[in-house]
Description:
Helix content is 37%, strand content 17%. The chain has helices spanning 6-13, 48-53, 55-74, 79-89, 104-108, 134-144, 148-152, 199-211, 225-236, 263-273; strands at residues 18-22, 93-98, 113-115, 118-125, 131-133, 159-160, 166-167, 186-190, 214-218, 241-244, 257-259. The strands form three sheets. A six-stranded parallel β-sheet has the order 3-2-1-9-10-11, sandwiched between helices. A hairpin with a 5-residue loop joins strand 6 (159-160) and strand 7. The longest helix is centred in the N-terminal third of the chain and has 20 residues, at 55-74.
Amino acid sequence: MARTTVDDAVEVLTGLRVAALTGAGVSTDSGIPDYRGPDSPPRNPMTYQQFVGDEEFRRHYWARNHVGWTHVNRSVPNAGHRALVRLEERGVLTGIITQNVDLLHEDAGSRNVIDLHGRYDRVICLSCGRVISRTHLAERLDALNPGFLESVGDVADIEIAPDADAVIESTAHFRPAPCEFCGGVLKPEIVYFGENVPRERVDRAYAMVDDADALLVAGSSLTVMSGLRFVRRVSDAGKPVVIVNRGITRGDRYATVKIDAGTTDVLAELADRLG
Ligand SMILES: [Zn+2]
């Protein structure tokens, strides 16, 4: 049975070099909802196969994304993100592997960050592989769909998902933009369900956890294997795993300490007491 308090976490982590694995729970206090949290509505995540295989699906996806991404773009880091910056500056934290695509760790000032599931501000062409900025794509989508954003109304009124996917109606006439170089299909540079994290990125993440003495998981229910495998790796090496998350996680059985709480306050307290 894992220990459960911040005191326990401080005792376990003191003097160790720690890698962090973060998920959606870290960004909820920045206004980005966690769709896997205990109070979240059920939601069917989009799959990679749906996106590449269905033109109508893509049309609706891009319409929603065009509304949702500006919300993510306006979000700002919270005290939890800033606590991880302090721990890195002090040499306690060696780096962050994040499942979030919102770039709030980078915005806060964290230097060594692996964006495991990609980043919302880039778009990739599935045919020629060119990467363009989401800001540039927004200008093209606005030109193709004059009046669309105005017709949708205030972004605060619609459901915003962590991948900048906002649920709205009447997107049937939205015109997605093809790649301007080759005409191919554009896709956010985000890892979707049914898609693998690029091998090179996984290897860098393994190297980060192998180099550390312990793993701190914050705000992830570890539902997908892409995150859980790092917890197993650290546990198998006999190193401590500290999990801070509201609700149960798939990694709880590997945890040395499991704190059932929101991440913002706990990370701030850890930053005050470690290093
Ligand atoms: Zn292209």
